[in-house]
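S1.2 Input.
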Amino acid sequence: MPTGRPSGDDEYRLDRPRCDMDWQAYHGIRRKVFHLPRPVEETGPDCHPLLLFLQDRPIGAIQVDELRNAAAALRLVAIDPAWQGGGHGRAMLERAEKFVLGLGCSKAVVYATPEAAGFYQTAGYDEEDWDEVCMGGIVQMLKKLD
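S1.3 Output.
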């Protein structure tokens, strides 16, 4: 399966899962990357599960949660392993940040593993303790959005 980034960024789309097949793809990607069982869906208005589509193929999953203080958390950021390494994670992050701005939030925050912290740092995130009850071994990161 190809992993290279397509020639045009307009070939990407970040959108809510709309049908059962989308939900299966969303949970399947999360299960492959994080080994998570299919959770009960959060239905609150502040929880936004999203799929990254390349053309019409779902290749990534992310959950955006609106927080207080004009911030939104990017959670469980995952690209299907077959598609990793082609710049798709960066494309999903850029679209998720635009989604966060559309919610009226001016900051995006993440809980990053130490291995993923470098990825977020190159995307403009800084280490910042934004959650006083965060678990050890996790790097808290924040980016102020324009």
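S1.4 Remarks. Strands lie at 12-15, 47-54, 57-66, 71-79, 107-112, 126-127, 139-144.
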